[in-house]
Amino acid sequence: MTREVTVFRERPGTGLCESLIAQARWWVQGRSVYLEVELPPHTYRSSGTSLFYAMLDLRQSRLEPEGLLLLTEGCRSDVWALGTPEQDFPGTRGIVLGTETTVDLLATVGERDVPRVGRVGDQLGFSTDEL
Predict the structure, then answer these.
(1) Domain range spanning residue 48?
(2) Exposed (0-12), middle (13-18) or buried (19+): which is 127, by Cβ within 10 Å?
(3) DSSP letter assigned to residue 131
(4) How many C-beta atoms lie closer than 10 Å to residue 12's C-beta?
(5) 17-26: burial string, b at 16+ Cβ within 10 Å, e else
(6) Which residues contact 87 (CB under 8 A, 6 or more apart)?
(7) Which of 18, 84, 85, 112 is deepest in the core (most CB within 10 A)?
(8) Environment class of residue 13 by beta-carbon count within 10 Å: exposed (0-12), middle (13-18) or buried (19+)?
(9) Closest Cα to residue 91, out of 51, 58, 59?
(10) Domains: count for the chain
């Protein structure tokens, strides 16, 4: 499945970001979910036990070191995997902590939720505090 996603790129030394459109593609192979984000001239790829965990790894190990921030619902600090990998494999939904509300992990984040999008460390810290 391929989706259009929004990515912020930090401009070094300016403190400013520019908004870019990228193509995200995910697929299942065996017991792994693969996620690929194409932002020419680069393609970033990762895998995990679910789409959520593949996205988490892609952000932390490939996008964030390049100054890229994925702006999807799955990158909000208050969104986490639905449960065990068996429950959400290979699903496209995550859950807002403390609620029963689910979100599409690859949907572009709404304007009011942009401040909730952060780096993986922020998301892990928020989720750990809430558990």
Answers:
(1) 2-130
(2) middle
(3) -
(4) 8
(5) eeeeebebeb
(6) none
(7) 85
(8) exposed
(9) 51
(10) 1
What's the pLDDT at 86? 65
Closest by alpha carbon to 53, among 30, 83, 29?
A: 83
Q: Which has the closest alpha carbon to 78: 33, 36, 114, 54?
A: 114
Please, which residues bridge with residue 117 across strands?
76
What is the average per-residue pLDDT within 12-18?
A: 81
87-115 pLDDT, tens digit per residue, is 677 889 999 988 889 999 999 999 999 99
- Indicate if the pLDDT at residue 36 is higher than 50: yes
User: Any residues with CB less than 8 A from the CB of 80 and at least 6 apart, and which?
Assistant: 52, 94, 95, 97, 123, 127
Per-residue HEC secondary structure of 49-101 comes to CCHHHHHHHHHHHHHHHHCEEECEHHHECCEEECCCHHHHCCCCEEEECCCCC
**CA atoms of 68 and 32, how far apart (whole Å):** 24
| Sheet-wide strand order for 16-29 | 42-48, 32-39, 16-29, 2-11, 68-70
